[in-house]
């Protein structure tokens, strides 16, 4: 009768698995760390935990990233680039209200599709803090909105020098709403976007009773969300 202890059995299983390339191992560690950072933050996550989940030794993590901080920097950098890319692709020329809708929808799309990534960015740099990756993203988007607001201000007789401040206000409101919706997820994202733009565009004194998205580029936003909810396989 042959008897193999649990540790020996584990070593046999690991030995029988295909060996990952360096690039594959790096991607595996990034994905594992991304999940762990989203769950507990960088302070609550250890190299030991990441290595254990990947079934490698701690030196493997250090070899690829130099330590937990290096791995965290890679994860955050990827999320920043992903969100900025989504924002930049969504913000196109058009009526200022349409631009606002595009920004709101792009952020909520990111929150829905990359919840872990958004949790990491917000934990790293909460809305309202003075520095961090998320603040940098907000500043980047606001700078794109700023010149359009300046044109509208000039056309309507307002002082264009206040456009940068209003751009920060508008984009910050979208970001804060996204942070709330991350856990709430109700109402649906197209409804959230419509009401958010309703407040930003009309103000409390001129709210529409039943707001709706107007931009031709985001009309499918609500339809896609409703289709996803109605599809039992989604």
**SSE-based structural type:** mainly alpha
Q: State the end-to-end distance.
A: 50 Å
Proportion of residues in helical segments:
over 70%
The low-confidence parts are: none
Strand content: under 5%
Number of domains: 2
Describe the global form. Answer: elongated
Alpha carbon gyration radius: 23 Å
Reported by name, the CATH topology of the largest domain is: Tetracycline Repressor, domain 2
Strand tally is 0
Q: TL;DR?
A:
The chain has 234 residues and is mainly α. Helices cover 72% and strands 0% of the residues.
Give your account of this protein's structure.
The chain is mostly helical and 234 residues long. The protein has 2 domains: 17-66, Homeodomain-like (Arc Repressor Mutant, subunit A, Orthogonal Bundle); 77-230, Tetracycline Repressor, domain 2 (Orthogonal Bundle), CATH 1.10.357. Helix content is 72%, strand content 0%. The chain is built from 11 helices and no strands.
């Amino acid at each position: 009768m042959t008897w193999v202890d649990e540790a020996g059995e584990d070593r046999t299983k690991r030995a029988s698995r295909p060996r990952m390339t360096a690039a594959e191992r790096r991607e595996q560690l990034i994905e594992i760390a991304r999940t762990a950072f989203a769950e507990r933050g960088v302070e609550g996550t250890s190299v030991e935990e990441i290595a254990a989940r990947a079934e490698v030794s701690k030196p493997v993590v250090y070899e690829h990233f130099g330590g937990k901080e290096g791995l965290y920097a890679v994860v955050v950098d990827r999320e920043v680039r992903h969100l900025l890319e989504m924002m930049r692709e969504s913000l196109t020329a058009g009526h200022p209200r349409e631009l606002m809708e595009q920004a709101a929808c792009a952020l909520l799309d990111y929150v829905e599709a990359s919840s872990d990534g958004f949790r990491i960015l917000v934990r790293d740099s909460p809305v309202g803090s003075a520095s961090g990756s998320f603040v940098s993203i907000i500043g980047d988007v606001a700078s794109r909105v700023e010149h359009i607001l300046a044109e509208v201000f000039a056309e309507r007789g307002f002082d264009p020098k206040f456009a940068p401040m209003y751009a920060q206000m508008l984009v910050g409101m979208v970001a804060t709403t996204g942070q709330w919706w991350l856990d709430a997820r109700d109402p649906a994202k197209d409804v959230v976007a419509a009401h958010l733009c309703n407040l930003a565009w009309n103000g409390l004194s001129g709210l529409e009773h039943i707001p709706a998205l107007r931009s031709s580029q985001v009309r499918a936003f609500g339809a896609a969300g409703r289709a996803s909810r109605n599809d039992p396989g989604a």
